[in-house]
Amino acid sequence: xxxxxxxxxxxxxxxxxxxxxxxxxxxxxxxxxxxxxxxxxxxxxxxxxxxxxxxxxxxxxxxxxxxxxxxxxxxxxxxxxxxxxxxxxxxxxxxxxxxxxxxxxxxxxxxxxxxxxxxxxxx
Length: 123
Fold this sequence. Notes:
4-stranded antiparallel sheet, 3-stranded antiparallel sheet, globular, disordered C terminus
């Protein structure tokens, strides 16, 4: 899967490009890898430890600020994308979830895990 299209966002792994409608989004290597990893698992929670391992090839050290900072920057750069958004899932990780209004695959609520904040991003 080298090209993924979710709503108005196209992620091209071969060209290392991300487009929102006709606008190219400039991402760092780490931001691209985070978005691509979440997009491959759209609607599912991806653990912080898994993201740390895949993107930086290092184990998660609890509340590693590196991941939090990169995710915040990614959300800002992805403003204007629809219907997907990056959600923080408390004590678990992150999920690329669809907007309820659009009727697209929102990650289901499972007991104590629920989105805690939305900082713009994929909305």
